[in-house]
């Protein structure tokens, strides 16, 4: 089985920082052509500053991932730069607290739109392109791989993060549903559910809540918080031919936290 993605073209959303950036950088190191995409233009510019603007393997795109036009423009920019797309990693996410007793559903709708619908829409538009490519070259084998980045909150909801939890539970079901729909077209759709990972958002939370780190460590059987890079190899596996008979699966990378009976702590 090969973990190679040499010469493949990947779109990675949420690539301005954290998990998305770690994935995008690793894909470049593995020889892929990578479109770094993010809503935050400043974060994306900083991430792209590590690469020569003339590097033929790397491009950047900034746009609101929750808008239909942005997703269409992102695919168009990728095709203009690299002619095709073989891998999509939906890593963009919005983290926001929500009151479960609040009758104002604006926050819930925003979280659903950005954490579930944006990725689903991107999956749909990219899948159509992958199908077209496969029809033009039926001898290539797999038509494409899509990986959705999820969170342990989808499995163990936290009341103060209810909207966030609901959005990712919906995203995981969309992962399974799209896997079934796209399997006949030789497109695989999988997810990676993370737990105690040092994301950009968790760093902010740790600054605001000094006691949060000890709570996370105590709730994690492996006794530590993972680096963002520690999710990367799982994403690479699901994006590569090494997982060519794997689809519709959500792989949990959480240091054993989901196995514990301890009360969930509010983390992102």
Core attributes:
seven-stranded parallel sheet, Rossmann fold, 8 helices, 7 strands, 42% helix, alpha/beta, 268 residues
Structural notes for this entry:
GO terms for molecular function: 3-oxoacyl-[acyl-carrier-protein] reductase (NADPH) activity. Its EC number is 1.1.1.100. Pfam families: adh_short_C2. Keywords: Oxidoreductase. With 268 residues, the protein is an alpha/beta fold. It has one domain (9-195, 228-252): Rossmann fold (3-Layer(aba) Sandwich), CATH 3.40.50. Helices cover 42% and strands 15% of the residues. Strands 3-2-1-4-5-6-7 form a seven-stranded parallel sheet, sandwiched between helices. Strand 4 (87-90), helix 4 (106-136) and strand 5 (144-151) form a beta-alpha-beta unit. Helix 3 runs parallel beside helix 4 (106-136) and helix 4 runs parallel beside helix 5. It starts with 8 loop residues before the first strand and ends in a 15-residue tail after the last strand.
């Amino acid at each position: 089985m090969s973990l190679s993605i040499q010469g493949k073209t990947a779109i990675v959303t949420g690539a301005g920082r954290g998990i998305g950036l770690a994935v995008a950088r690793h894909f470049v190191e593995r020889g892929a052509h990578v479109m770094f995409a993010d809503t935050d233009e400043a974060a994306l510019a900083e991430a792209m500053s590590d690469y020569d603007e003339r590097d033929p393997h790397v491009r950047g795109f900034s746009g609101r991932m929750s808008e239909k036009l942005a997703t269409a423009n992102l695919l168009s920019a990728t095709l203009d730069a690299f002619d095709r797309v073989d891998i999509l990693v939906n890593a963009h996410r919005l983290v926001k607290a929500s009151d479960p007793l609040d009758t104002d559903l604006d926050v819930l709708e925003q979280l659903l739109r950005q954490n579930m619908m944006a990725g689903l829409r991107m999956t749909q538009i990219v899948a159509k392109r992958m199908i077209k490519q496969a029809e033009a070259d039926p001898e290539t084998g797999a038509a494409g791989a899509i990986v959705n980045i999820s969170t342990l909150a989808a499995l163990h909801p936290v009341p103060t993060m209810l909207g966030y939890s609901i959005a990712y539970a919906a995203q995981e079901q969309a992962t399974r549903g799209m896997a079934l729909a796209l399997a006949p077209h030789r497109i695989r759709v999988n997810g990676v559910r993370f737990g105690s990972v040092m994301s950009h958002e968790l760093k902010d939370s740790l600054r605001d809540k000094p006691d949060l780190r000890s709570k996370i460590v105590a709730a994690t059987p492996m006794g530590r918080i993972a680096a963002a890079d520690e999710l990367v190899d799982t994403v690479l596996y699901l994006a590569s031919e090494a997982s060519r008979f794997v689809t519709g699966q959500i792989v949990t990378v959480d240091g054993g936290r989901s196995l514990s009976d301890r009360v969930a702590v509010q983390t992102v």
